[in-house]
Write a structure and sequence with these properties.
nine-stranded antiparallel beta sheet, 18 strands, binds magnesium ion, single chain, disordered C terminus, globular, T-fold, binds adenosine-5'-diphosphate
């Protein structure tokens, strides 16, 4: 067994894991001597999730302004890459088969990054999954299990290697029938952008949390940020309690958006090889300096399964992961295990 097994089955009593991680850049100053700081929090609905931004600093007005700017930034990112309404990404999809199509350079850059992550994960993360992904509906009351024949046909259009991006002019070529969906990376990218704006505005302590995909800066009331990782089948149970600063913690799993037919769970992470929901892991949590990367990687790890997931992560500098396999076992990457303190308790 190459990977630590922290809890054998999710039905066992609570196992709490305390992790101290400082993966981020030391250049991000921490304001230890500051007197009592003001704290401003805001919740907004954006990118299909509840986004929370909280910031601490000496000047309440400055915090409000910084959060206004971060909010505007994340809405700008959403407008660029949503596929729920007209957007530059939708225009690109509509132009599939027409040769090189001009897109905003920022969109082309994110697509190029997504393609690189496709290569890194050997196609487990594949933004062209959308050709088959669009056949699936997970919305409550409107669930749809596509016909096997439809899935097979759409699968011929899934292959990130057939997308061409010209970074110098922002042009992208999608073959006919292919579509791109950025649902597995856009939220992370939005979190990165929002945090960058807070930093530009001089904020030193903040969190940007997009429904559990989060990035933290500095401290919370003078202490490391504590992030509880929940078990995908028992949301009351924390399987890990991470203490972090200047890093991102992003979780993907089969419990976020799913429906059941004949006792079988169909969820929103699609295995690009089959066109059906991934069966690799129940959930994957990635800790990394960059939220877009962590977002995409967490999605990929759910496709890859725990063994391949941890093998991949072990080769990536400053990236750690915690995965819950299909049997509910919790496993951690090597670098994370070095920080683990397992406190077992019988009371759950
Ligand atoms: P969440 O959005 O709940 O945080 P994820 O980050 O795992 O979850 O993203 C899941 C979304 O990613 C799906 O809703 C879909 O838009 C997209 N997606 C699903 N499967 C893949 C895949 N294999 N590669 C890239 N994107 C995917
Ligand atoms: Mg993701």
């Amino acid at each position: 067994m190459t990977h630590a097994c922290l809890a054998s089955r999710w039905t066992l009593p609570l196992v709490t894991v305390t992790v101290v991680l400082l993966l981020g850049s030391e250049a991000w100053a921490q304001d230890e001597r500051a007197p009592t700081l003001e704290r401003v929090e805001r919740s907004l609905a954006v990118m299909g999730t509840d986004l929370q931004i909280a910031a601490e600093g000496p000047d309440r007005g400055a915090l409000e302004k910084a959060i206004d700017a971060a909010e505007a930034e994340i809405r700008r990112v959403e407008d660029l890459m949503t596929d729920w309404r007209p957007s530059p990404l939708m225009e690109l999809n509509e132009a599939a088969g027409e040769g090189l199509h001009e897109t905003p350079p920022e969109l082309a850059r994110l697509i190029a990054r997504a393609l690189d992550i496709g290569q890194l994960t050997e196609g487990a993360f594949d933004v062209t999954f959308a050709s088959v992904g669009q056949l699936w509906r997970f919305k409550k009351g409107r669930e749809k299990l596509p016909a096997a024949e439809e899935v097979r046909a759409a699968l011929t259009h899934v292959d990130y290697r057939r997308v061409t991006v010209e970074l110098d002019n922002g042009r992208v070529d999608l073959p006919l029938g292919m579509r791109i969906g950025l649902g597995g990376i856009a939220k992370g990218y939005g979190v990165d952008r929002a945090m960058s704006v807070l930093l530009e505005k001089g904020v030193q302590h903040a969190i940007v949390n997009a429904g559990g995909d989060l990035k933290v800066l500095g401290k919370k009331r003078g202490k490391l940020w504590e992030i509880a990782i929940r078990h995908p089948r028992d949301r009351e149970r924390a399987i890990a309690l991470l203490k972090v600063s200047n890093t991102c913690v992003v979780t993907s799993g089969d419990y976020e958006r799913f429906f059941e037919v004949d006792g079988k769970r169909y969820h929103h992470i699609i295995d690009p090889r089959t066109g059906y929901p991934a069966t690799g892991c129940m959930s994957a949590t990635v800790v990394a300096p960059d939220a877009a990367f962590a977002d995409a990687l967490a999605t990929a790890l759910c496709v890859l399964g725990s063994e391949r997931a941890l093998a991949l992560v072990s080769g990536l500098p400053r990236v750690e992961a915690l995965v819950v396999d299909m049997e509910g076992r919790v496993q951690a990457s090597e670098g994370l295990r070095g920080f683990l303190r397992v406190e077992s308790s019988d009371d759950g």
